[in-house]
Amino acid sequence: MTRSIVLAAALLVCVPCNAATEQNGALTPAASRTVAPGFSLVDADGKRIDLADLKGKVVLLDFWATWCGGCKLEIPWFMQFDEKYRKQGLAAVGVSMDDDGWKAVRPFLAKGIDAETGGNISMKYPVVIGNQDLASQYHLSSMPMTVLIDRSGRIALSHSGVVDKAKFEAAIVELLK
User: Fold this and answer.
1) Domain boundaries in the chain?
2) Do the Cβ atoms of 114 and 80 come closer than 8 Å?
3) Which SS3 state, helix, strand or coil, does residue 130 take?
4) N or C: which end of the chain has fewer CB atoms below 10 A?
5) Which helix (H) or strand (E) holds 156?
């Protein structure tokens, strides 16, 4: 089976991309967190992004696609979080799951996004193209899906659907302490 058929099948059996899966947003207790699956992928500028290099930072890992309405709503929030908390140790990484890869993503990045105002805001954090193996390792079942990884490289929160902006920011702040 091709990657696109497998990914499409996985997404069809789950929540549509713009619907939220109701979750309490609480961080997993530190003792119960599992190690985040590693990856090494190339961003839009050709720079290798390796999760292991981000150890010591809180990582906001955002699985998204250019066609996903919920994703387009969240990206401006994540850009705000990245700008606000980067100096405190937050590292945001966008993982596009578009079947057409860079063919779909480069024009999207060039155009910019701001779902709230319709303006043009460029993503300042790295974006990589995901694959079926990575989606499987992170149990991607619907988009958007956002994962918070603590400074030790362990998954502190995994959320499918659009996050509650205030609760998600509070989780980031807690992990940065």
Assistant:
1) 3-176
2) no
3) coil
4) C
5) strand 155-160
Place of tokens 């989606």: 135
Which secondary-structure segment (H or E) carries 60? strand 58-64
d(C-alpha 59, C-alpha 57), whole Å: 6
Tell the residue number behind the tokens 């994540």, with chain if given. Answer: 78
Query: Which CATH number does the domain 3-176 belong to among 3.90.1310.10, 3.40.30.10, 3.30.565.10, 3.30.930.10?
Result: 3.40.30.10
Taking Cα atoms as reference points, which of 98, 48, 38, 100 lies closest to residue 72?
Answer: 98
Distances (CA, A) of 60 to 3, 93, 105, 119: 25, 6, 19, 23
> What are the phi and psi torsion angles at 156 (to 5°)?
-95, -25
**Residue 94, SS3?**
strand
